[in-house]
């Protein structure tokens, strides 16, 4: 008998679940706002042929060994650093992700963070909400315009390019650091590839768009951060661990840079309490892909990957 059991570690949009149901798969979902524990995951998915996971679910060697029937781990995320993909491959388990479909939503949010930092939006909201606005003043909450600012994109992949493309319309000049040349970016928006040190020194706005792996972990370290301009803004919508968060906090405390915007954190979902005390930061709860359109597309893609693998076909977005 063909194993048609699928376990999903969290409730995802119905559009993908319905695709699976229509194919006759038996679905079990962990319906809770709390992340599933390792013990609960193993117990619930022990007979499953497919596992649909979130980025917050750490699928390590121990879990993989305890799920002997598993054929696919379909990650409901563009990233996949939460999964031991090398060991999964050794065990004959396919791992997939959901790239491309969340590019626009993440790029939109990145630009929102940049504008919020540059124009001190949250400080303005707080001033009004606390009834402290006493009228127009020449020097009230001065920020800066984006025109003619140098934007440094670290990681000129799909999302990095989408951010750069948007910012070009504001009149920004684009430089980037990436492991390979992005000729489309260079031709269409006149982006210039530079070294990481040069980018850190020259940029008025720095936006991180690199995956988390052994080479990028703590890539933006203390030495790199100290190269930044005093008026610079740093935005992280990539992964918390690519950045020396503690040193950045110390810089923000003494106004060593202008501001920073975060959608991801080093010990997510825990947030360093020192960040909460600062007024030159904008903090978001990892909502880069949180649009109806993007989350629905992600749901459809994980479902299609599962259907493909359990039907003996090649998945759309295999990462291992």
Name of the CATH architecture of the largest domain = 3-Layer(aba) Sandwich
Q: Give the integer mean of the pLDDT values.
A: 96
Tell me the number of helical segments per DSSP (H or I, 4 or more residues long): 12
Strand order of the largest sheet: 8-7-6-9-10-11-12
Write down how many β-strands occur, each being a DSSP E stretch of 2 or more residues: 12
Number of domains: 2
The gross shape turns out to be elongated
Following the backbone from N to C, one meets helices and strands in this order, namely EHEHEHEHEHHEHEHEHEHEHEEH
Quaternary arrangement of the chains shown? single chain
Quote the CATH topology of the largest domain.
Answer: Rossmann fold
Low-pLDDT sequence parts:
none
């Amino acid at each position: 008998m063909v194993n048609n059991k699928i376990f999903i570690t969290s409730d995802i949009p119905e559009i993908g679940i319905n695709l699976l149901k229509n194919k006759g798969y038996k679905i079990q979902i962990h319906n809770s706002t709390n992340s599933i524990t390792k013990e609960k995951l193993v117990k619930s998915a022990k007979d499953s042929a497919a596992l649909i996971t979130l980025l917050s679910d750490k699928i390590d060697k121990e879990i993989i060994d305890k799920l002997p029937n598993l054929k696919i781990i379909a990650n409901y995320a563009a990233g996949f650093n939460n999964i031991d993909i090398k060991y999964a491959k050794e065990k004959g388990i396919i791992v997939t992700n959901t790239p491309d479909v969340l590019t626009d939503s993440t790029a939109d949010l990145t630009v929102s963070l940049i504008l919020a930092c540059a124009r001190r939006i949250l400080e303005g909201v707080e001033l009004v909400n606390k009834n402290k606005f006493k009228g127009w003043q020449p020097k009230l909450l001065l920020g800066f315009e984006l025109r003619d600012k140098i934007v440094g994109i670290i990681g000129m992949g799909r999302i990095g390019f989408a951010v750069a493309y948007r910012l070009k319309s504001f009149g920004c000049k684009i430089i980037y650091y990436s492991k390979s040349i992005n000729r489309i970016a260079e031709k269409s928006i006149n982006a210039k590839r530079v070294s990481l040190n040069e980018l850190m020194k020259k940029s008025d706005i720095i936006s991180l768009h690199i995956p988390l792996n052994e080479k990028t972990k703590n890539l933006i370290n203390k030495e790199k951060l100290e190269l930044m301009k005093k008026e610079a803004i740093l935005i992280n919508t990539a992964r918390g661990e690519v950045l020396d968060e503690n040193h950045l906090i110390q810089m923000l405390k003494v106004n060593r840079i202008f501001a920073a915007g975060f959608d991801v954190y080093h010990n997510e979902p825990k947030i360093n309490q020192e960040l909460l005390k600062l007024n030159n930061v904008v903090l978001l709860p990892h909502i880069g892909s949180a649009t109806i359109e993007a989350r629905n597309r992600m749901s459809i893609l994980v479902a299609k990957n599962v259907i493909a693998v359990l039907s003996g076909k090649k998945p759309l977005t295999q990462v291992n």
